[in-house]
Write a structure and sequence with these properties.
Among the domains are: 2-45; 57-149, Receptor-associated Protein; 255-359, Type II secretion system (T2SS), domain F (Receptor-associated Protein). By secondary structure, it is mainly alpha-helical. Helix content is 73%, strand content 6%. Helix 3 (79-89) runs antiparallel to helix 4 (93-107) and helix 6 packs antiparallel against helix 7. The chain has helices spanning 25-34, 59-74, 79-89, 93-107, 112-116, 125-137, 140-191, 203-216, 218-238, 240-251, 255-278, 283-291, 297-311, 316-321, 328-340, 343-401; strands at residues 2-9, 15-22, 38-44. It has 16 helices and three strands.
């Protein structure tokens, strides 16, 4: 079923803009006539534009929408009216239009979950599955509220990761830029004064001159362009997905980074799995859907493989135990949840524990990383100064001896 945008005039002569769903353009035109509207403009919306990242809805915005919908649905307001009410108050206009499209399809007789599935760029498989579970159980409002909490935590975690990385990256980039400018423009003018000296220069000074010549060389500037291009074509030839999997697998072997990635990804995975199981989604489907919340492609593929073992009768814990990168503590907590019949509750506790550990790790890393970058910059600048001063000290010593 295609999506159409229209501009029409109602029986009062007032203009109306909106969206509707139909199989063909003729059916869309007939639908407008059934609504007693005179179409002025009717256009099919090409689905390829859904790939535009600017059409997606962020976690924070989606969390707010879900919470408002939850409040209205729990008050007994029908879903389509709740969607219209939220759409009237939401910004920006693209999000408002998205909700209106969903509302129109609900009014056409489709389920809320089916209407959301028409917009995968904004409502992912996890969100649609949770809504479907809420519809099946008759607890849509409660599920939407829990989904809002989940999305809020996910948004906070994303913000913490971004906040933890932005300042050190900016600081490190500025440091590299300053050092490169010193080596390219300042150092050559200073060290050129040493060429007239008929003496062996210290090793540190010669190293600085060599590094300065490399950065000042036109070949260095050419390599800054050619190396990324060559890397890009190699990645395209090998396959972006394959290269990313190899790189992600490597990251899970780096001691410090490994803990950050695992805590963040496994926290999202266990939280979404807990939500889906609470909504009575089958463990197989819940595993595959929850795996999509994992950002590390290698870990995602390994966890998706565990659904095969679960389908064959294995327990979730025994299947996850085969994934070597998953911490034993996580497997043990899941096993305890299965043995006690409280898997959903234990998954939620595991998510809370991993999220707390992640936040503490971020704070510690931030406290250590900022001074570490400053110290590295200070050492490098000190080496440059020392490399320049050493020949002057040698010259002064030689002059004194004469």
């Amino acid at each position: 079923m295609a999506n159409f945008s229209y501009k029409a005039i109602d029986h009062n002569g007032e203009a109306e803009n909106g969206y509707l769903f139909a199989e063909t353009l003729d059916e869309a035109s007939m639908e407008l006539k059934n609504r007693k509207l005179i179409p002025l403009k009717l256009k099919k919306i090409n689905r390829r534009f859904n790939l535009n990242p600017f059409t997606s809805i962020g976690f924070s915005k989606l969390s707010m929408i879900s919470r408002q919908l939850s409040t209205l649905v729990n008050s007994g307001i029908p879903v389509d009216q709740a969607l219209d009410s939220v759409a009237e108050q939401i910004e920006p206009s693209r999000v408002r239009n998205k909700l209106k499209q969903v509302s129109l399809k609900v009014k056409s007789g489709f389920k809320f979950s089916e209407s959301l599935e028409e917009h995968p760029e904004s409502f992912d498989k996890l969100y649609c599955s949770l809504v479907k579970a809420g519809e099946s159980s008759g607890e849509l409002g409660i599920i939407l509220e829990k989904t809002s909490d989940f999305l809020e935590k996910r948004a906070n975690m994303t913000q913490e990761i971004t906040g933890a990385l932005v300042y050190p990256i900016i600081l490190f980039s500025v440091a590299i830029g300053i050092i490169s400018l010193l080596l390219a423009y300042v150092v050559p003018d200073v060290v050129s004064q040493f060429n007239s000296l008929d003496r062996e220069l210290p090793f540190l000074t010669k190293s600085l001159i060599f590094l300065s010549e490399i950065i000042s060389s036109p070949f260095f500037l050419i390599s800054l362009v050619t190396i990324p291009l060559v890397t890009f074509f190699l990645v395209r030839r090998i396959g972006i997905k394959k290269v990313r999997t190899i790189f992600d697998k490597f990251l899970l072997k780096v001691p410090v980074i490994k803990n950050f990635l695992l805590d963040a990804d496994l926290s999202r995975f266990s939280s979404s799995l807990s939500l889906l199981r609470t909504g009575n989604v089958s463990i197989i489907n819940a595993l595959e859907i929850s795996a999509d919340t994992i950002t590390n492609s290698f870990l995602k593929s390994e966890i998706k493989k565990t659904s095969i073992g679960v389908r064959e009768g294995e327990t979730l814990a025994s299947s996850l135990q085969k994934v070597s990168v998953i911490p034993p503590l996580a497997v043990q907590m899941i096993q305890n949840g299965e043995n006690s019949g409280k898997l959903e509750e234990m998954l939620f506790k595991l998510s809370e524990y991993l999220e707390t550990r992640f936040k503490n790790s971020v704070k510690i890393a931030m406290n250590l990383l900022e001074p570490l970058v400053i110290i590295i910059l200070g050492i490098f600048v000190a080496l440059i100064v020392l490399a320049i001063l050493l020949p002057l000290i040698q010259l002064n010593t030689f002059t004194t001896m004469i």
